């Protein structure tokens, strides 16, 4: 892909220059053929002397052919120029008529066909006019070389203009003639690689037969050497030019695609390649763009999925599917709930309440994620987070859970400071923490599933949160959590014995943390 777009005027000038140069080059080949090779020598001179009349005739013929080719190109290109002006003026490219779309895609072939047709007409005319098949051979080789250069050169230049007509790059939807890469290579070989040895054989045989009856065999032999050098020079020069053009036509799109794949590998999913041909390379570019569109869509879905569930749950679902089932693990559960939420909801308009709760949840979830936790449930005004499940395995899950609870209390204090500035009521919350074995996994049915944890530790964390108000402490943790901590003595936790927990037959011991 080019770094800066090429204007339509620049493209037109470059195409005209190429056609002119290719025509002049072909005319020089024809002139050299008639000046050095044809006719076969009848005297002692190996080549015929250059005559002013011949130079003038060939110059005039070359100018006429060039002028005629350019005039035909201009006439046939009227629809393209009309729609180019319309598109540049703001007309959507999607309104491009099918016939113009087809003409845009085969335009390089049109230009080459005009050159080929003009050369063929001139070759047939001169061979009939002078009753000499050699005239046809000489003009045909120059026309073949010029046609090849015009086609492959125009194809390269015109590719810079194609995206103007097809900004979406969907060229395969246009029913136009397609010259495949294989046919293109065969065409180049036939016009250059096949014509050169054929011409060498024909001209060599003609001179060999002439030597048998000639009075000056040495002159004919010398002329044969000139013929061989001529064909060698024309073949090498035309072959090199064609090889460069064909290589650029094939390697260029592949290099662009390779660079684009590297950018996609670096997560630049908005990468696209310019589709400029309707052959296999163009189709490959189209499929690449479709692939990146799918990747962007998948990334958007994954991001949306990650908003409804935690990023860890989304990642697990993407990588291993969403099968039902669970795993028994030892982890720590944190349960947080806003106190007196019903009273708060009665004091605020619904829209304002939702806004406040969303900002509160954002602040709390950020603390959980920063400490490696996974939020498995939102309950309107409550949050449940887990540490140490298969989604976030860790050996220090109790320490992380307690640090998360302390961080949530600090985040709530900062949140309330901002709410005070807006003259909104402060939020109050309680946090319960419990450690123990739970079942972690996907629970639900075929239509809907949820990643969650179930077990006594989950129920205990919720019940401890309910007890925070009676205990006069913002955070209560179970004895199992306290015993699993590394450096629990530094927390200055207050021991609460014989705490009655709903659903448990025997009282439990809990530990209360002061406000951080």
UniProtKB/TrEMBL annotation:
<feature type="transmembrane region" description="Helical">
    <location>
        <begin position="15"/>
        <end position="35"/>
    </location>
</feature>
<dbReference type="GO" id="GO:0035556">
    <property type="term" value="P:intracellular signal transduction"/>
</dbReference>
<protein>
    <submittedName>
        <fullName>HAMP domain-containing protein</fullName>
    </submittedName>
</protein>
<comment type="similarity">
    <text>Belongs to the adenylyl cyclase class-3 family.</text>
</comment>
<keyword id="KW-0472">Membrane</keyword>
<feature type="domain" description="Guanylate cyclase">
    <location>
        <begin position="332"/>
        <end position="465"/>
    </location>
</feature>
<dbReference type="GO" id="GO:0004016">
    <property type="term" value="F:adenylate cyclase activity"/>
</dbReference>
<feature type="transmembrane region" description="Helical">
    <location>
        <begin position="185"/>
        <end position="206"/>
    </location>
</feature>
<feature type="transmembrane region" description="Helical">
    <location>
        <begin position="136"/>
        <end position="158"/>
    </location>
</feature>
<feature type="transmembrane region" description="Helical">
    <location>
        <begin position="55"/>
        <end position="76"/>
    </location>
</feature>
<dbReference type="InterPro" id="IPR029787">
    <property type="entry name" value="Nucleotide_cyclase"/>
</dbReference>
<dbReference type="GO" id="GO:0016020">
    <property type="term" value="C:membrane"/>
</dbReference>
<dbReference type="InterPro" id="IPR001054">
    <property type="entry name" value="A/G_cyclase"/>
</dbReference>
<dbReference type="Pfam" id="PF00211">
    <property type="entry name" value="Guanylate_cyc"/>
</dbReference>
<feature type="transmembrane region" description="Helical">
    <location>
        <begin position="104"/>
        <end position="130"/>
    </location>
</feature>
<dbReference type="InterPro" id="IPR050697">
    <property type="entry name" value="Adenylyl/Guanylyl_Cyclase_3/4"/>
</dbReference>
<feature type="domain" description="HAMP">
    <location>
        <begin position="248"/>
        <end position="300"/>
    </location>
</feature>
<dbReference type="Pfam" id="PF00672">
    <property type="entry name" value="HAMP"/>
</dbReference>
<keyword id="KW-1133">Transmembrane helix</keyword>
<keyword id="KW-0812">Transmembrane</keyword>
<dbReference type="GO" id="GO:0006171">
    <property type="term" value="P:cAMP biosynthetic process"/>
</dbReference>
<dbReference type="InterPro" id="IPR003660">
    <property type="entry name" value="HAMP_dom"/>
</dbReference>
<feature type="transmembrane region" description="Helical">
    <location>
        <begin position="226"/>
        <end position="251"/>
    </location>
</feature>
């Amino acid at each position: 892909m080019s770094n800066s777009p090429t204007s339509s005027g620049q493209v037109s000038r470059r195409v005209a220059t190429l056609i002119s140069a290719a025509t002049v080059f072909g005319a020089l080949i024809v002139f050299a053929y008639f000046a050095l090779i044809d006719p076969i020598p009848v005297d002692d001179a190996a080549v015929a002397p250059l005559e002013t009349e011949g130079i003038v005739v060939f110059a005039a013929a070359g100018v006429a052919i060039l002028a005629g080719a350019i005039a035909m190109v201009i006439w046939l290109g009227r629809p393209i120029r009309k729609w180019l002006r319309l598109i540049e003026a703001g007309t959507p490219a999607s309104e491009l008529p099918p016939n113009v779309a087809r003409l845009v895609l085969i335009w390089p072939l049109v230009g080459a066909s005009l050159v080929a047709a003009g050369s063929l007409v001139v070759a047939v005319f001169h061979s009939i006019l002078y009753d000499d098949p050699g005239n046809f051979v000489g003009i045909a080789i120059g026309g073949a070389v010029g046609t090849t250069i015009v086609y492959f050169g125009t194809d390269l230049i015109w590719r810079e203009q194609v995206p103007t007509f097809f900004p979406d790059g969907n060229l395969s939807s246009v029913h136009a003639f397609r010259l495949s890469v294989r046919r293109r290579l065969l065409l180049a070989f036939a016009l250059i690689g096949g014509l050169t040895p054929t011409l060498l054989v024909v001209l060599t045989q003609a001179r060999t037969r002439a030597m048998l009856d000639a009075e000056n065999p040495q002159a004919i032999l010398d002329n044969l050497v000139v013929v061989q050098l001529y064909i060698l020079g024309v073949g090498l020069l035309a072959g090199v030019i064609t090889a460069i053009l064909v290589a650029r036509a094939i390697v260029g799109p592949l290099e662009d695609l390779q660079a684009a794949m590297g950018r996609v590998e670096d997560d630049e999913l908005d990468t696209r390649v310019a589709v400029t041909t309707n052959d296999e390379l163009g189709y490959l570019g189209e499929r690449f763009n479709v692939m990146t569109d799918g990747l962007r869509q998948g990334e958007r879905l994954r991001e949306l999925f990650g908003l409804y569930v935690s990023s860890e749950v989304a990642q697990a679902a993407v990588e291993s599917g969403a099968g039902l089932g669970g795993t028994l693990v030892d982890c720590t559960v944190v349960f947080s709930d806003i106190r007196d939420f019903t009273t708060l909801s009665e004091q605020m308009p619904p829209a304002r309440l939702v806004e406040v709760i969303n900002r509160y949840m954002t602040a709390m979830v950020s603390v959980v994620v920063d400490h490696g936790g996974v939020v498995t449930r939102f309950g309107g005004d409550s949050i449940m987070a887990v540490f140490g499940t298969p989604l976030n395995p860790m050996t220090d899950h109790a320490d992380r859970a307690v640090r998360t609870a302390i961080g949530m209390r600090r985040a709530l204090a900062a949140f309330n400071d901002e709410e005070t500035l807006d003259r909104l009521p402060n939020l109050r919350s309680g946090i319960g923490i419990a450690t123990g074995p739970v079942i972690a996994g996907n629970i639900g049915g075929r239509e809907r599933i949820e990643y969650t944890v179930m077990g006594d530790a989950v129920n205990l964390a919720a019940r401890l949160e309910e007890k925070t108000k009676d205990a006069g402490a913002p955070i209560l943790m179970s004895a199992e959590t306290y015993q699993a901590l590394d450096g629990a003595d530094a927390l200055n936790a207050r021991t609460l014995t014989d705490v009655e927990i709903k659903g448990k037959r025997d009282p439990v011991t809990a530990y209360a943390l002061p406000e951080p």
